[in-house]
Amino acid sequence: MADSDALPAILVKKFSRAREQRSRLPAQATALDVDGRSLRVVQTTTRGGQPAVARVSVAPLNLPADADRTDPAVLGAAIAKALDHLKLKPGPVVLGIPRSQVVLKTLLLPVIANVSDLASIVHLQVGKDLPFRLAAAVVDFKIHRQITPPAPKPDANSRPLNPSEPAPTAPPPKLEVLVAVAKREVVEFYQRAAEAAGLRLVALGLLPSASIRCVEACRVTDRAATFALVSLRHDEVSIDIVAGQAAPFSRGTTVKPVAPASSTSEAVTPEAFVNAATIEVVRSLHSYSGLGADASVPQVLVAGATGHEAAVVPALAARTASPVTLLDTAALELPEDSRAHAAGAVAGIGLALGFADAEGLPFDFLNPKLPAAPRNLRRIRILTGLAAAAVLFVAVGGVRTLLVGRRQAVLDAVTAEAAAAEKKRPIYKQMISQASVVNEWVKGERDWLTHYAYLTAVLPRSEEIFLTSLAVTGQGVLRLAVRAKSGAVLAKLEKQLRAAGYEVKPLAITPGSDRTGYEFLSTVELVVPPKLKIDLTKVTPPARPADDVSLEPQRKKGGG
Predict the structure, then answer these.
(1) Which of 178, 234, 245, 426 lies at a C-alpha separation of 20 to 30 Å from 413?
(2) What is the pTM of this model?
(3) Cβ(58)–Cβ(344) under 8 Å?
């Protein structure tokens, strides 16, 4: 099988866009790794534009002996206490899922440029072999490389190829895709645990791939080299065979932890732990060689913080042909107070560095690559209906324009009439107001017009006094506003009104200036007695002045 050194250009372009988006993520992050009864914390910073480890810390998880570790609230509370013990308040937090909780598969798929379409095929292929429903799983994948299968070899028993027949074509290239599947309930467990601890979980990676990222940062092997990484944890041994920065083989197994000196539990002795770990590693190496792998494992690296790594190295060296060494983390250039914790925080270091990388984590169960959304047939039908409605709208547009034009002509005519009527609005208002006054007089059962005519005959001549306004109050009181040429005329007015039968309230006289000589103002209030009877035939109004023009027709402007 021939390898291709580079992915297709269009795939490189697709993933370059993803790297551009990832480059905007904060370079500083905190990775948490729960290892038995310990919490390992790794914090990153930026050196020369590249992520680097700034601090590695370890704190005990104060979990009671009978604590339910499957309860995310219990685990979250213990993590919060451990962070308080370290006096840390992390921002974005990254967690990892161990190998035992993940299903790993390698698929050979056609070369597809669209990542969403590739994700659809990955989900389809993986769903056939999962021990649980695909709906209950979170699937993420990583494109390892593009390979070109060799051309089929001719069969010795087949007839010779006819020169006129076309030569068999070479098989198309394939994509080698590494797939990781976790149960959705596992992902939700870590989300709830982070929430219970008061943390902002931004990524959920895979511990084996994180360990590989740490080995790469330690620069103890070439990038394309093949090696085995043995990670010893409190109660688990992980074996990852790495080839070309990917792990085509990964296995995790549970081992009994070493018992403390004062413990009476079912834990084992250090010698038994070393022997069990060695056996599991040898089994894994034999299983890998049985898969027909092209290359052997030229190097074995051991990492962990159980305290038994130094004993596992010679035990493995005695049972394998490959050199076995402890993982050297000196290339990380850690602070002095963090170097002692680096060997046990390999996975945490890889999680923190991987999240801070421009490419991001190779597997992120919190933000997996998702298939393209299925076509929404209902939406398509709605859009089709809208398009048909638009065509119908255009078809009736001409008819509508014609009808609107006709109605617009009617509207213009009515608008002109309304504008003409608007100019006469003051006249209409005056007529309505006068009609309202007359109606009120009629409702009051008094003929105020008769009183008005009677007062016209009673009042002195206009050469002495004239009426400026006449009003009737709600209590039936006549209120006259008059202007007179002298106070004597006003006194005369009062006497004449009393003689006419009205009850006159005392007058208030206000002197003022007037160019016509009527310099005395007064308001006269008259109360009409119930017994007052008016007979207009017995009174005669004063004669009009010789220069009175009030009854002459009004001349039009312009002399017409």
Answers:
(1) 426
(2) 0.62
(3) yes
